[in-house]
């Protein structure tokens, strides 16, 4: 059959229309995937007991929780040129929250982007669940990395603060916990756990593990300060005085888990257009001390 110019034009236009429809559809799907904010965002996803999530659109709106919905507080604050901004954690309201720009959830990482005070801040939570390395896969650890970049040509003095609530080591908030600060060859770590340490002492639903210990650790090279205390008081002190405010523990153990946090702070230094980062590590296990030593320095 002879193909006329009209038939060719009709065929061409039909093919072009189909191409445009497919292209638009693919673009819409990609855009939708990029803009997805899941109902709950994971930070710590090591196992069902060591599992911390955010259930708010902005990371600083509400306290983080265990996957069962019970309070499991994590908090992060960045201090820029003497002014503190909440990145994570809902209190105290007297500290301004930095504007959250985006959140992205990947297989082993959750990445938040913030902007304010003439800096860009990237807060990344990494649980190295790598299936091809059983030793790393079995580590009950999550890295919290804070990367800061100046949004202009100005140089900024930056500090980073992170804490974890004592309840991460308990089943309920009113359980008694004890804590200590441990110095290792390459890290400073805060250790907290229940006084009772009843291994496998409970059964049933809606339970959180209350034996073993929670560690919050920072590499010694970052010159960290570490302490235990009341969350709001420590947040306020860091906001006013920076890392130097975290000196001696202000807690007489044992105390109720919900009344104490394990906190670390460190100078990020002078930050310009080149990004500068610092990280803390959190781990939870009966024998997590060796995990800390081997995990520090492996954050990349």
Can you summarize this structure?
This protein is α+β, with helices and mostly antiparallel strands and 300 residues long. The protein contains 4 helices and 18 strands.
Elements, N to C (H/E): HEEEEEEEEEHEEEEEEHEEEH
Number of individual domains: 2
- Uncertain spans: 11-33
Please report the total strand number as a whole number: 18
- CATH top-level class of the largest domain: Mainly Beta
Evaluate the radius of gyration: 23 Å
CATH architecture of the largest domain: Distorted Sandwich
Oligomer: single chain
Largest β sheet strand count, sense and barrel closure: 9 strands, antiparallel
The proportion of strand residues reads 35-45%
Summed over residues and divided by their number, the pLDDT gives a mean of: 85
At the third CATH level, what is the topology name of the largest domain?
A: Beta-galactosidase, Chain A, domain 5
| Share of helical residues | 10-25%
The global form is globular
- The helix count comes to 4
Question: Any chance you could write out the topology, listing elements then pairs?
Answer:
Layout lengths: L4 H30 L6 E5 L5 E4 L10 E2 L7 E7 L2 E6 L7 E2 L1 E7 L3 E8 L2 E8 L7 H4 L3 E10 L5 E10 L10 E8 L3 E8 L18 E7 L5 E5 L1 H11 L13 E2 L4 E11 L4 E10 L3 H7 L5
Parallel strand pairs: 5-6
Antiparallel strand pairs: 1-2, 2-3, 4-5, 4-11, 7-8, 8-9, 9-10, 10-18, 11-17, 12-13, 12-16, 13-14, 14-18, 15-17
Describe this structure in words.
By secondary structure, this protein is an alpha+beta fold. It has two domains: 1-36; 41-295, Distorted Sandwich (Beta-galactosidase, Chain A, domain 5). 17% of the residues lie in helices and 40% in strands. It is built from four helices and 18 strands. The strands form three sheets. It has a nine-stranded antiparallel β-sheet, covered by helices on one side. Strands 6-5-4-11-17-15 form a six-stranded mixed β-sheet, covered by helices on one side. It has a three-stranded antiparallel β-sheet with strand order 1-2-3, with no helix packed on it. A hairpin with a 5-residue loop joins strand 1 (41-45) and strand 2. The longest helix has 30 residues, at 5-34. It is globular and about 55 Å long. 42% of the residues are buried. Mean pLDDT is 85; it is low at 11-33.
């Amino acid at each position: 059959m002879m193909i006329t110019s009209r038939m060719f034009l009709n065929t061409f236009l039909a093919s072009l229309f189909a191409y445009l429809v497919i292209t638009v559809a693919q673009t819409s799907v990609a855009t939708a995937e990029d803009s997805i904010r899941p109902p709950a965002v994971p930070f710590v996803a090591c196992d069902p007991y060591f599992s911390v999530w955010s259930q708010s659109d902005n990371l600083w709106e509400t306290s983080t929780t265990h996957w069962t919905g019970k309070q499991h507080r994590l908090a992060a604050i960045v201090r820029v040129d003497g002014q503190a901004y909440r990145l994570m954690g809902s209190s105290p309201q007297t500290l301004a929250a930095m504007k959250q720009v985006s959140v992205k959830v990947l297989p082993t990482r959750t990445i938040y982007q913030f902007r304010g005070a003439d800096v860009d801040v990237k807060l990344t939570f990494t649980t190295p669940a790598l299936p091809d390395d059983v030793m790393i896969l079995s580590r009950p650890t999550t890295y919290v990395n804070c990367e800061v970049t100046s949004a202009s040509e100005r140089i900024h003095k930056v500090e980073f603060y992170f804490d974890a609530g004592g309840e991460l080591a308990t089943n309920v908030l009113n359980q008694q916990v004890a804590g200590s600060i441990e110095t290792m060859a390459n890290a400073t770590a805060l250790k907290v756990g229940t006084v009772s340490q009843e291994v496998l002492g409970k059964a049933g639903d809606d339970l959180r593990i209350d034996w073993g210990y929670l560690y919050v650790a920072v590499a010694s090279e970052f010159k960290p300060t570490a302490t235990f205390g009341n969350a709001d008081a420590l947040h306020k002190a860091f906001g006013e005085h920076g890392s130097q405010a975290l000196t001696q523990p202000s807690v007489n153990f044992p105390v109720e888990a919900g009344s104490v946090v394990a906190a670390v702070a460190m100078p990020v230094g002078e930050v310009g257009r080149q990004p500068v980062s610092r990280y803390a590590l959190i781990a939870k296990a009966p024998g997590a001390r060796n995990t800390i030593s081997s995990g520090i320095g492996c954050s990349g």
